[in-house]
Design a protein that fits this description.
Layout (H helix, E strand, L loop, with lengths): L1 H18 L11 E2 L9 E3 L1 H4 L1 H4 L3 H12 L6 E7 L3 E6 L1 H14 L13 E5 L11 H19 L3 E8 L3 H18 L8 H4 L9 E2 L2 E2 L10 H14 L8 H23 L6 E4 H6 L2 H11 L3 E4 L2 E4 L10 E4 L8 H13 L4 E7 L6 H10 L7 E6 L2 E5 L2 E2 L12 H8 L1 H8 L8 E4 H4 L8 H21 L18 H22 L4 H19 L11 H25 L8
Parallel strand pairs: 5-6, 5-13, 6-9, 13-14, 15-17
Antiparallel strand pairs: 1-2, 2-4, 3-4, 7-8, 10-11, 11-12, 15-16
Helix pairs in contact: 1-4, 5-21, 6-19, 7-9, 7-10, 12-13, 13-14, 15-16, 18-20, 18-21, 19-20, 19-21, 20-21
The structure holds one RNA strand.
RNA sequence: GGCCCUGUGGCCUAAUGGAUAAGGCGUUGGUUUUCGGAACCAAAGAUUGCAGGUUCGAGUCCUGCCAGGGUCACCA
């Protein structure tokens, strides 16, 4: 419908330009739903864009356009010139009549669009190293990535959700050492570090304490989960693992168990991945060597002080970076470049990386490096998100990774539930700081809790159907739902809101901005809850059968949109609360 | 110090370059005390951090400054 209007406008503008002897292309004008409802259902800015080319005042051009547009084949009921030269277009009533029926008929697919049909997108998110439980920061990323994937899916894209499993490097080695230390400590074969050593006030650690060696590495992982794994190992294996390698058995054991826990956590949030891309496969398949020699061919690699460097300054960046350490081990950056190149080779039209603010510095290096390898850098997009703070009782909860006093996703989901957790995590745009207010999330005053406010709006639409049943009446046929009977201002408001949904989805998907959807749902619920609340003003189930059918139609349409919207957010749409 | 992100009513925030900057929380004043179990209406509250610039038009884009956060590893 919007497309039709757009086409008609383009034709009218083209005709106008031709008349004026201007053969150039029609400029890209906007056709949008104005904030102010007095400005019609759509507003177009074309006239103002043409002032220079036509040398006429914008309002005159607008008037000429209106003349040529007419009623756009019955689509429009009113057109007018407004403000500095906007074209305000009002849709004919038949459109509103059709809307309710269309929503009900489309059902689960209402709101979808075809922007990405035939194209493939890769969304990489979480990608946490299995060194410990997922924290709240990972949680934000998990929900962001998942909802972005859902939005792109609703826009016709073929989506691959990917988790980059990065199990090489020093961190994992330290993890193995930490686990082995806990194991030995429990057997009385090693001494645990003192609290002073752990909190960083002792720089040089002693090799022994009370005659026992200190096995725990400086900077090791202090979380309780390692004690638990170690205890389990002692229970099942006794002391037979003493000779096992920290970087072998213990590292793999820790990695395996922790990753299992991570997947459990993700599962509890209803997040599944299509692909766990293993860093080590880049080594096994020679992708690193290949990338290195290709970069070398471009003179982007040099040796210095025993290490191999990427000449990033040649790409306009402010410093060069080591890609292979003096030890022969690659840094994080190197496989990451090869990895992104592989994403291109795997045939994705669009590559989306969801990353935390701490990772941001990495991105320009990867992007410019793969660009040198023949990949179109425009096709990689970064969704960067700031961190999450948690507030309880009006005070910020202190978090420290080093001391392992962080709050995990499991903690939080256990407290507020997956639905509230998900909704809260996409309430703000990604680049902004997010404060997770536990008092609000667990509040018994549910009206203040936006997740439940929206869910409740959905439950209420279902309540009407139950009520209908109680009264022993049957659901009216779709054809009886005559939206012409919906004439109250609040009903028109609702119809317009429902009409907006597909555009909200399209915009959120294109801009990789899930928060548009949560805002929209909050607004729709904000219209619907008061409407249904005040039964005296506009009863839905009344003696007037025609009106009843029309309002049931409205309720069903609202239900469809709330349900679809919540589904995009991965939040359940309960029929009863 | 370099680079990145963010500055919007008292608080939290929204706004594909569009018209009178939109919600929620809180505050104040009414209405309602009942349902289809989470009430409604109204009011107050803003120089969109500051100063320039770009143009028909800037919260949005550009430059400089100020403030907060992040990051500047042969960590990941």
């Amino acid at each position: 419908m919007k497309e039709q209007l757009h086409t008609q406008l383009t034709e009218a503008i083209g005709a106008l330009l031709k008349e004026a002897g201007d053969a150039a292309e029609v400029p890209a004008f906007t056709l949008e739903v104005p904030r102010n409802t007095d400005h019609g259902d759509f507003a177009c800015n074309a006239a103002m864009l043409l002032t220079k080319r036509l040398g006429k005042p914008p309002r005159d051009i607008a008037a000429a356009l209106i003349e040529r547009l007419g009623d756009a084949d019955g689509l429009l009921e009113g057109t007018e010139v407004a403000g500095p030269g906007f074209l305000n277009l009002r849709l004919s009533t038949s459109h509103w009549r059709d809307l309710v029926l269309r929503i009900i008929q489309d059902g689960a697919i209402y709101g979808n669009n075809s922007a990405g049909v035939g194209k493939r997108v890769n969304v990489e998110f979480v990608s946490a190293n299995p060194t410990g439980p997922l924290t709240v920061g990972h949680g934000r990323q998990a929900i962001l990535g998942d909802v972005i994937a859902r939005l792109l899916g609703a826009s016709g894209w073929e989506v691959t959700r990917e988790y980059y499993f990065n199990n090489g490097g020093r961190q994992m080695r330290v993890l193995g050492q930490s686990l082995k230390a806990r194991y030995l400590e429990g057997l009385g074969k090693a001494a645990p570090p003192t609290p002073e050593m752990l909190d960083g006030s002792v720089e040089e650690w002693p090799e022994t304490l009370d005659g026992l060696p200190v096995a725990f590495p400086n900077g090791g992982y202090q979380g309780n989960y390692l004690f638990e794994i170690a205890a389990e190992l002692r229970e099942t294996r006794g002391d037979e693992l003493i000779e096992e390698d920290a970087d072998g058995f213990f590292r793999l054991e820790a990695q395996g168990r922790i990753f299992t826990e991570i997947r459990k956590t993700l599962d509890s949030l209803d997040i599944q991945f299509d692909e766990y891309y293993n860093e080590s496969s880049l080594y096994d398949e020679g992708k690193l060597d290949e990338t290195l020699s290709d970069l070398r061919e471009k003179s982007l690699v040099f040796e210095q002080e025993g290490a191999t460097w990427l000449r990033a300054t040649a790409l306009g960046l402010d410093r060069d970076r080591v890609i292979i350490k003096g030890t022969g081990e690659p840094t994080y950056l190197f496989p990451d470049i090869a990895y992104h190149r592989e994403k291109f080779r795997r045939g994705f039209d669009r590559i989306v990386d969801v990353q935390g603010a701490d990772h941001i510095e990495q991105f320009p290096f990867v992007r410019l490096a793969v660009a040198q390898l023949g990949c179109d850098p425009e096709r990689i997009e970064l969704v960067m998100h700031q961190f999450v703070t948690i507030t309880r009782g009006g005070e910020q909860v202190k978090q420290s990774t080093r001391r392992a006093t962080y709050i995990t996703i499991d903690d939080l989901v256990g407290e507020v539930g997956a639905d509230v957790f998900r909704f809260f995590m996409i309430q703000r745009k990604a680049e902004g700081h997010l404060d997770f207010d536990l008092d609000l999330a667990t509040s018994s005053d549910w009206k203040k809790n936006p997740a439940m406010y929206v869910q409740y709006a959905h439950a209420r639409t279902c309540g009407i159907e139950r009520k209908l049943e109680e009264q022993g009446k049957s659901m009216p046929e779709a054809t009886e739902m005559d939206a012409d009977r919906l004439v109250l201002p609040e009903e028109i408001e609702l119809l317009k809101k429902l009409n907006e949904f597909p555009e909200v989805v399209a915009r959120a998907a294109e801009g990789l901005s899930p928060h548009h959807v949560s805002y929209y749902l909050r607004e729709l619920a904000g219209l619907w809850n008061p409407y249904i609340q005040d039964g005296s003003k506009h009863r839905i189930l009344s003696d007037d059968e025609g009106l009843t059918a029309a309002r049931i139609g409205l309720a069903l349409a609202v239900r469809v949109v709330l349900c679809n919207g919540l589904k995009l957010l991965g939040v359940s749409a309960p029929e009863k609360m």
